[in-house]
Amino acid sequence: MANKRMIKVLDIDLTNQKVETFRREDLAPYIGGIGVAAKLFAELVHPDKDPLDSAQPIIFANGPMSTIFPVVTKTVAVFRSPLTGEWGESYAGMRLALAMRMSGFQAIVIRGQAARPVYLSISDHGVRFKDASALWGLTVSETGSILRDLEPGRGHRSCIRIGPAGEKGVRFANVNVDTYRHFGRLGLGALFGSKNLKALVVHGERDEIIQDYAKYNKVYKEIYNQAVTTDIMDKYHGLGTAINVNGLNHLNGLPTRNLQQSSFEHAQAISGEAFAEQSLVRKMACAGCPVGCIHIGLHRREFGPGYDYESKNLSYDHELIFALGSFLGMSTQDKIYELIDAVEELGLDAITAGVLLGWITEACQKGIISEEQLGVKPEFDETKPYLEILKIIIQQPNELYQTLARGAFAAAQRYGGHEYAMTLGKTEIAGYHTGYANILGQAIGARHSHLDNAGYSVDQKLKNKTPEEKVAALIKEEKWRNVLNCLTICLFV
Amino acid sequence: MAKILHAKYMAKCIGCYSCMLACARVIKHSFSLTKSAIQIHTAGGLQSRFLADICRGCIDPACARACNCGALLPRSGGGVRFLSDKCMGCQDCVEACVVKTIRFDHESNKPIICIQCGTCTRFCPHQVITMEVKDDGQ
User: Fold this and answer.
1) Residue A169 belongs to a domain
2) Is any Cβ of chain B less than 8 angstroms from the Cβ of A287?
3) Phi and psi at residue A317, in whole multiples of 5°?
4) Smallest Cα–Cα separation from A95: which of A243, A229, A237, A294?
5) Using CB atoms, which residue from B25, B32, B41 is nearest to A206?
6) In chain A, N or C terminus with fewer CB closer than 10 Å?
């Protein structure tokens, strides 16, 4: 589209409150997304320093096709993971890729540490470092409400922020993107917190003229029609990723009760079908995606006697239903919503939070950690103790909680119980217990995610093939997904 | 009777912005949402509902009445025709618009006028926005 491509990089130094922009033609061969972010990370990371050292960079990148083609909606974040100490890579949708495109930056680098809490207002007219002291300590949703009023760019902007978990350095704190999406995995939120960075609001009003209109319009229409009028995206728009709950359960692949089981007797009640029929209220889309896979459910809760009710619109997906549902033995949607609400407001990665709670439950049952240390007695299918534990993990009042705030692998290192700490590459597992290809895929994949190479799909599609063929399929898929991730095309995460 | 743009079914909107992209792309040959005559935003954050700022296709359009250089002409069935060459960039139409949905493009020094072409409706995956004959009670 553009004849001479170059990547415009915004480099933000929190320590000195200075910014610089670089026009990097040399980055063009890396395409964008993960390619560009990986290259910048290699240039800027300090391998000898702690992941939370102020010198460590956070890098965001979108791709050349972001927003202007259907389903190209992701922004990648690359960082040294506070959870694993290793490669940190996470994707989020909603409006961020759009806002970056309209601000004119294909990559944003954030380094250093602010002297006091700040948030950044980034646009095509520069970067402002703004006082966030009044926002520090606030939940994710409150922070969003306030920034919405403080910042310009309604409808075209993106607001990404951390909750109390990131501020307190919980190693699996996430970064919320526009309320309903997240840089979920590997602890980017803790890195924000360590930099005294509460939020980023990105917006832009730049014009960008289409070079070859006729050709572009034709290709756009083709892809749009594929996404909207054919059935290829039906499952994502219809039930969303939650369609997998029943399917996996039938395959005996739905991790249940800390993976003591791989099928769940209450799966039907918490399936995508049940959620849709009983509590789905609307669907939403990331900017530029006509599919609309984001499923929003209504959680209604009685908070006092005399019919006092509150309600909240919460986003649900397969991973949340697995991690905060079947994995913890949760038998009803309401219980899952309670836990989703808590991780959303605190700003925790839902998968790690759920898998860690699973380990805590089993570790407590086996007596390697005590009810006294925990302050509550965790039990599958009981939300109250879990909600309490999540809150205390933020505060970390004792050594046990300080350890738990480092994730399930660190907890098992300290207290034992590795055999039931469901981690691969120090990262808590995703919700697909389909077989060896899934486990191998998560173990060897760059970010230890089921999305690296779709091992879960290899397990099903190449069921009767040899192990060599499965390994070859994993490698092939991982390479291809790297191309997709350079282009920041959605993989439905 | 010519049809005009309606946004009656915003409760079904998923916020995909395909309409805005379509308007900017087809009419302005731009990737930028700022060039779109239809603007989608939320009432108060993404937990709230989506709203559409659109030209309401007035039968006797205030913007055309305010235009003294002949760039905006009433269109039969509602709305206006925009003769860009005649526009001098006074912004009186922006001021005059009853529902305040005309935005001004400082780069081209012209207002962003909905020409009621219906392109946006062809890229709405849920028929949230539609082209319908204006029912003004007359």
Assistant:
1) yes
2) yes
3) -145, 170
4) A294
5) B32
6) N
Token pair 């380094």 in the structure block, residue: A111
User: What CATH number did the domain enclosing B15 receive?
Assistant: 3.30.70.20
Its domain, for residue B107, covers 3-133
Residue of chain B nearest A1, judged by CA positions: B31
Put simply, the answer to whether B17 touches A220 (Cβ < 8 Å) is no
Please tell me if residue B46 touches chain A, with a CB cutoff of 8 Å. yes
* Inter-chain CB proximity A98 and B31 less than 8 Å: no
Instruction: Using a CB–CB cutoff of 8 Å, tell me whether B119 touches chain A.
Output: no
Indicate whether A281 belongs to any domain.
yes
Q: Do B14 and A224 touch (CB under 8 A)?
A: no
**How many C-beta atoms lie closer than 10 Å to residue A483's C-beta?**
13
pLDDT digits (tens, 9 = 90+) for A157-174: 999 999 999 999 999 999
How many domains does the structure of chain B reveal?
1
A356 shares a domain with A294 = yes
As for the ipTM of the complex, it is 0.94
Interchain pair A148, B44: CB under 8 A? yes
- Candidates A122, A151, A124, A123; CA nearest to A135 is A151
Number of domains chain A is built from: 3
Domain membership of residue A103 as a residue range:
7-209
**Helix residue spans in A151-212 (DSSP H):** 164-167, 188-194
Q: Is residue B138 part of a domain?
A: no
Q: Choose among B17, B25, B46: nearest Cβ to A178.
A: B46
